[in-house]
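FAQ

Q: What does a record look like?
A: Structure on top, sequence underneath. For example:
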């Protein structure tokens, strides 16, 4: 196939270039990333549906790609990590240091680090293949609350080590879907087992064991001293949730420093507030608790160990019927505001 005809974009070419190197080191990428790849849909006819061809699916997060570990068939995720930032050192510490060997640790474990032969400023971090924590949809309130409990536990564990995450949000919360999706899932098409159609088969989370994980430590930092006294400069802050008072225009313009631990607390609340919106009124009993995490005044937000106590008390106060009642994701049109079940 001529390079000019290659449907893989420039962002995918890193993986194509390093396909053989990764294979030599025990990691096999998908068929699409083989250097001599020929798209399987060529000659299939005009009536064919492109998304039913496994190799049609590219990855939407270009720094991360799935692979199979050739020694044992284990599914992994490979991430390009810059050595200029804190992520690799943070991953190593949170995965391998004796202080972090705890069931409270929800860091996605670092399995292996590979140098990149043609770029000394970048490495490839190998971690287990994980899934977006919001899909498949939550089945009942107990599932939402258990997810929230584990996220508070994981970020709280980091805080106990004086480490802030810095960008605690939907895209950085994942789950081990081994039992939820027992037949697996396609990395670039999660609604599919194998990338050939919407054929995913899932088990409700309340019927199996699920562990949630935290990823992406590009904005993480370890502080010395009391968490309440920690301050971070606002310039260059990369945070996907921008609604906290610390990040308002006035504070940005004045370059007012902020406490990153309190911002983590806010961002957890905002993430689950969005989930409440997705399930329209079915999770409203949780909103007062989330509102305390999202207090406008950062110092009024609870530390996560206190938030955990309050959450557990809330769960204990609910009946089994309330916890296990089915809930349903409700789509809201961004154009009309109408909701669809």
């Amino acid at each position: 196939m001529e390079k000019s005809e290659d449907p893989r974009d420039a962002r995918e070419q890193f993986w194509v270039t390093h396909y053989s190197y990764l294979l030599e080191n025990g990691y096999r990428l998908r068929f699409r990333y083989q250097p001599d790849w020929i798209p399987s849909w060529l000659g299939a006819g005009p009536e064919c549906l492109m998304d039913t061809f496994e190799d049609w699916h590219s990855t939407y997060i270009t720094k991360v790609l799935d692979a199979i570990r050739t020694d044992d068939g284990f599914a992994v995720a490979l991430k390009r990590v810059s050595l200029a930032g804190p992520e690799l050192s943070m991953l190593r510490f949170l995965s391998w240091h004796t202080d972090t060997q705890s069931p409270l640790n929800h860091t996605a474990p670092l399995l292996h680090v590979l140098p990149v032969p043609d770029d000394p400023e970048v490495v490839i971090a190998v971690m287990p293949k994980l899934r977006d924590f919001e899909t498949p949809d939550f089945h009942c309130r107990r599932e939402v609350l258990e997810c929230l409990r584990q996220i508070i536990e994981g970020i709280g564990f980091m805080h106990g080590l004086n480490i802030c995450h810095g960008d605690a949000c939907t895209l950085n919360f994942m789950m081990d879907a081994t039992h939820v999706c027992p037949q697996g899932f396609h990395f670039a098409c999660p609604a599919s087992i194998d990338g050939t159609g919407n054929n995913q088969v899932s088990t409700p989370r309340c019927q199996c064991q699920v562990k949630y994980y935290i990823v992406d430590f590009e904005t993480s930092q370890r502080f010395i001293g009391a968490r309440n006294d920690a301050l971070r400069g606002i310039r260059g802050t990369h945070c996907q949730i921008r609604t906290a008072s610390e990040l308002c225009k006035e504070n940005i313009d004045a370059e007012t420093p902020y406490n990153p631990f309190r911002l983590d607390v806010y961002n957890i609340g905002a993430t689950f507030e969005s989930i409440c919106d997705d399930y329209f009124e079915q999770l409203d009993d949780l909103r007062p608790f989330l509102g305390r995490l999202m207090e406008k005044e950062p110092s009024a937000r609870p530390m996560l160990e206190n938030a955990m106590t309050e959450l557990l008390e809330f769960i204990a106060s609910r009946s089994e019927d309330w916890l296990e009642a089915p809930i349903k994701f409700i789509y809201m049109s961004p154009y009309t505001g109408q909701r669809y079940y």
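Q: Is there anything notable about this one?
A: The longest strand covers residues 119-128.
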